[in-house]
Backbone:
């Protein structure tokens, strides 16, 4: 059986974590280190105790899996005293991790504001040109588009960088949960979307204000004050636009296969599909289906496959398609 430190080193490698110099420091404190891949400097951390039953934990901030607790494989059942000691270690490491996280985010917050203030106002960028959208207050750092992630009070906590090729990165250590990028002035309707290009396309097509949450996991974390404006807009029969994944039951397809003995045909598969038509408050947008190529014409064709507008409830299917596939 491997020694505890070697077991821990293997677990780190499994998460793409690189201890400095390849050496694991087992002093029960948080240690920052690098993650595998380009730009991974300082993007990981670990903690290891060797007293009693060896235990600790680690996190790679690039992989999105969060903190992982770890305990050495002792090949035996722990005694009640050992279990209690292990739980105490976990609690101590949790407190240590929370303090480290607060320091990390405070450093990132200062860095984010400094970088954003020094960046030039963007008038055009290869990414916005390709998507057919305006920059909407984004800035430029070299050849990268820079978007601020703000909380409900307007404080900049982190930055998203978008390269000319569309590659996206976040400022190391910055807070994303509950932060967003706003486009336009909010009146009766506020649209909540995942990506910047999607949000810009929606705003330019409808005039509605948009809060960009940056990813699906952050949608629920956007501050209540922002989400409440979406809810109130639905109450007065306006529309809010959400990512497509919110509506997994939006379409229905029925399929039935049966044998046929006509002209060499051995079987047939008949499919009947129903889909919603979208109805917009503004007359100029009436009947637009944002999921088809006939949706918004701002040039961001990807947007038409990512969003759907809905009123107080999802309407019944309004379009139907029948198809028949024959097997010879």
Residues:
């Amino acid at each position: 059986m491997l020694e505890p430190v070697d077991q821990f080193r293997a677990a780190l490698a499994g998460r793409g974590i690189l201890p400095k110099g390849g050496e694991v420091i087992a002093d029960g404190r948080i240690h920052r280190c690098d993650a595998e891949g380009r730009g991974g400097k300082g993007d990981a951390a670990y903690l290891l105790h060797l007293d009693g039953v060896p235990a600790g934990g680690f996190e790679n901030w690039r992989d999105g899996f969060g903190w992982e607790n770890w305990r050495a494989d002792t090949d035996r059942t722990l005694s009640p005293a050992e279990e209690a000691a292990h739980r105490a270690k976990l609690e101590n490491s949790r407190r240590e991790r929370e303090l480290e996280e607060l320091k990390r985010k405070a450093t990132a917050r200062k860095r984010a504001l400094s970088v954003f203030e020094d960046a030039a106002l963007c008038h055009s960028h290869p990414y916005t040109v390709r998507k057919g959208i305006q920059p909407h207050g984004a800035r430029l750092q070299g050849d990268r588009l820079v978007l601020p992630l703000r909380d409900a009070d307007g404080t900049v906590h982190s930055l998203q960088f978008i390269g000319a090729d569309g590659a996206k990165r976040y400022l190391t250590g910055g807070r994303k949960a509950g932060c967003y990028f706003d486009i336009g002035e909010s009146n009766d309707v506020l649209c909540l979307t995942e990506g910047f290009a999607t949000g810009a396309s929606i705003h330019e097509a409808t005039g509605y204000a948009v809060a960009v949450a940056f990813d699906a996991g952050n949608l629920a974390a956007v501050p209540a004050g922002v989400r409440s404006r979406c809810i109130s807009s639905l109450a007065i029969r306006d529309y809010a636009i959400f990512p497509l994944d919110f509506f997994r039951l939006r379409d229905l397809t029925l399929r039935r296969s049966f044998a046929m003995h006509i002209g060499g045909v051995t079987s047939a598969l008949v499919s009947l599909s129903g889909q919603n038509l979208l109805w917009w408050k503004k007359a100029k947008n009436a009947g637009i289906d944002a999921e088809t190529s006939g949706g918004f014409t701002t040039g961001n064709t990807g947007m038409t496959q990512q969003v759907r507008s809905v009123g107080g409830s999802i309407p019944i299917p309004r379009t139907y398609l029948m198809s028949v596939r024959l097997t010879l």
